[in-house]
């Protein structure tokens, strides 16, 4: 005959024991301790709520016919970390596939010890993961060691995936119409150089050392086992925004990235163009700005997720 199911959740052993709130806080401290249940019970955070160390667990939690109090609590501890690892894997699916499940979970578990969840929602769980990877990156092997290259590639990939998740979870441009562009050719120069473009709340501009946007697209396009070759480094620029509840990624040239960045910071069109000219120097002649600028703005306007409007006289 099958044994009866384990009672759940663990409870204080008597009605005159610690109140429910203290038991809940004590249990949270015990089951989330990185070194296990007994170490968690002995830790100061748990004893702050109930002074019952590893040898006194059954004064708070009853044992069952088959499991000790420590073993019962371990079920919750294992489930807690398993759920958090699953959540991080859902936020960073391409990074998880790139690293492999075991390696990714190793990085993620260490991250959860350094940056534990502190809020009622898991939406912010992965926010510090890219910075954590940067802080804990392995030592370089020479001036251009393979370890250092891979570390930078993985950090870039984590930044891209967190930004995609953050944009999806934040405000977007649902229902927005295409911004009506002024006829620059018909405007006085003194008018159009003072125009200020209001950026969309979901617009993010990113610069990477490796082509992680292309890698992201490649990995998402296949369910087959990955056969990765390490990409060549180089400067890559991407705009990320959202429209119709879909996060969209736009590869950018350096010139587009610089101009959009200045406009997103609130610079007028004239000031943004000056910054662009100063940054690119002599190479700006190759851009043929007279042809490029109208094409860029027409495209950004049609996409309906770069800007929300224009401030200034368009007459």
Overview features:
disordered N terminus, about 50% helix, about 10% strand, about 325 residues, two-stranded antiparallel sheet, mainly alpha, three-stranded antiparallel sheet, elongated
Task: Explain how this protein is built.
The structure is a single chain. The chain is mainly alpha-helical and 315 residues long. Helices cover 48% and strands 9% of the residues. It is built from 13 helices and five strands. The strands form two sheets. It has a three-stranded antiparallel sheet. A two-stranded antiparallel sheet has the order 1-5. A hairpin with a 2-residue loop joins strand 3 and strand 4. Helix 4 crosses helix 6 and helix 7 packs antiparallel against helix 8. The chain is elongated, with a radius of gyration of 27 Å. The N and C termini lie far apart (86 Å).
Provide the fold topology:
Elements: H1 20-31, H2 37-42, H3 44-49, H4 69-91, H5 93-99, H6 101-114, H7 129-135, H8 146-169, H9 189-192, E1 196-199, E2 204-208, H10 212-220, E3 236-243, E4 246-252, H11 254-264, H12 269-280, H13 289-303, E5 307-311
Antiparallel strand pairs: 1-5, 2-3, 3-4
Helix pairs in contact: 4-6, 5-6, 7-8, 11-12
